[in-house]
Amino acid sequence: MAKDNTVITVIRPMPPKTSSSRDACLVVINGVDLGKKYNLAQDSTIIGRSSKVDIQIDEESISRNHAVIENDGEAIVIRDLKSTNGTYVNDRPIDERSLRDGDQVKIGRTIFKFLSGSNVEASYHDEIYRLTTTDGLTQVYNKRYFLQEMEREMSRCLRYQRDLSLVMLDIDHFKPVNDTYGHLAGDHILKQCAQRIVRTIRRDDIFARYGGEEFILLLPEVGKTQGIRTAEKIRTTIENEPFVFDGVEIGITLSLGVADLQEYLARSSQNGSGQVNHEVNAFAFIKLADDRLYRAKESGRNRVVGD
pLDDT tier at 17 (50, 70, 90 boundaries)? Predict the structure, then answer.
């Protein structure tokens, strides 16, 4: 009987592809080159003000050779190069630190988001979309997105006769803060102020940076009285706890103006005939709250004006 020489080949599944740390990039989420992507595939990437570095940022607060990002194929590490104003990761000053997906790197007034992994390109496009709705510095909604949502919410409340209040708020004496402590301190206060307010308001409220040191808050299903209470709560929250930057306490106050949808309707009446113009005009509504914000400033600041 012939010997059976059959060879059995065992086919093993291919091991899953692992992503190398070479698949990584920085995306500008706050700064002049908003949305720009810098790949980090090379061994060393130097960031600074010098024209000879790999990532140049032309800001006075940035050193010529400010920081270096090193990629050894296994990990990506950022190291401060003894810069004058420091390098920050997730708002904390660092000398050296390994970067993880989603970390925010701040150098001068520019903020980068670190993306890594096998789907870096998809993450990058997600981040670019997010930048269309979110303010890069404060991480709250931007003005463009807020106005879109405000028009939608005004239409809904007008249609179903629901309450709606609007709060305009501004940081008092913000320019002297920048002049005294520097723009980095000002940026820190803007971000921390926004985050404190986010923790104070409801999940359904719509909060955005309107421009500079001015913010705006839309309160669905809230009438004037409750809107004023909310504004007062925000005011005391900011006043009662100083901000700390580089070990220095900085006291901050807010001025706030409040308006509600009923006032908007009253001012939208056509020629005093009593007929209401139901066309949505977000800017007319905003002007009501902004006029009261101006009065809060004129009457001494650190106060809420609601009528």
Answer: very low
Q: Using one digit for the tens of pLDDT, what is the confidence trace for 46-64? A: 999 999 999 999 999 999 9
Rounded to 10 deg, the angle between the 183-200 and 224-239 helix axes is 140
Tokens of 196: 């404190």
Distance in angstroms (rounded) separating the CA atoms of residues 288 and 307: 9
Continuous segment of H or E residues that includes residue 97: strand 96-98
- The half-sphere exposure of 289 on its side-chain side, counting CA atoms within 13 A, is 30
DSSP conformation letters of 207-233:
EEEEETTEEEEEEET--HHHHHHHHHH
Catalytic-residue membership of 70: no
User: For residue 68, what are its two tokens?
Assistant: 């270096």
φ, ψ (nearest 5 deg) of residue 53: -85, 170
Helix (H) or strand (E) holding 133: none
Paired tokens of 154:
């005004």
Is the distance from CB of 143 to CB of 210 less than 8 angstroms? yes
Of 153, 213, 214, 241, which one is the catalytic site residue? 213
Q: What is the dihedral of CA 244, 182, 233, 304, to 10 degrees?
A: 150
Q: Among residues 174, 53, 182, 27, which one has the least CA distance to residue 108?
A: 182
214-220 and 164-171 beta bridge pairing: antiparallel
CA proximity to 39, closest of 56, 27, 51, 52 = 27
Q: What is the pLDDT of residue 279?
A: 72
* CA-based max dimension of the chain: 113
Q: What is the distance between the alpha carbons of residues 117 and 158, in angstroms, rounded to a whole number?
A: 47
